Amino acid sequence: MFIGEHTFKVDGKGRVSIPADFRHELTEGDPQAAASGRPRMVIVYGHETQKQLIVYTYSGFRALAEEIRALPRGAKRRVIMERMILNLARTTELDNDGRFVLPQPLRDKIKLESTAYFAGMGETFEIWKPETFEDETAQFAEDWIAEMGPGANPLSLLDEPEGN
Questions:
Q1: 104: number of CA atoms within 13 Å, CB side?
Q2: 3-state secondary structure of 153
Q3: How far apart are CA 37 and CA 50, in angstroms?
Q4: Residues whose CB falls within 8 Å of the CB of residue 52, separated by 6 or more in sequence, listed in order
Q5: Average pLDDT of each block of 10 consecutive residues along the chain (164 residues)?
């Protein structure tokens, strides 16, 4: 599981380290990593309005692709997910030092400069420009508090019926 927050420098070539605990999860999530020592991961960069990169383990992304493939051909949900997830994704692997190259187009997309913010999201993690994450989180928290009331406990959402 990917949890916690981490900040790492991005060098001039676009190389960035992956948090050590995330590396372990990526290795566990790639059946070939034991032999190669270089776990693969899949970065979903998504539509132009997406402000972060969403990173899946290799196996996790394959499972997601299978779920999408299980939908009826031509179904609107399947077409949307094929175009916004499968089409707008890129596989990469870590080097022996636990780094990967974040290509310039992906850095440009999220306006990433010299520092990357890693946000653990359970099954995935996200890569953000730190200032964008801070702004988005502040707005998210403000909206949530306005809806739920001050002092609301996020765990209370587990008790809500599905669909909310």
A1: 2
A2: coil
A3: 31
A4: 110, 119, 126, 127, 128, 132, 133
A5: 97 95 96 93 95 98 97 96 97 96 96 97 98 94 84 82 66
Closest of 101, 95, 99 to residue 14, by C-alpha: 101
Give the residue from 100, 116, 93, 103 showing the smallest Cα distance to 10: 116
| Whether 98 contacts 39, CB under 8 Å | no
CB contact at 8 A, 89 and 61: yes
Copy the structure tokens of residue 59: 């196996």
Residue 25: how many other CB atoms lie within 10 Å: 22
Q: Tokens 């809500």 identify what position?
A: 160
Contact 75, 67 (CB under 8 A): no
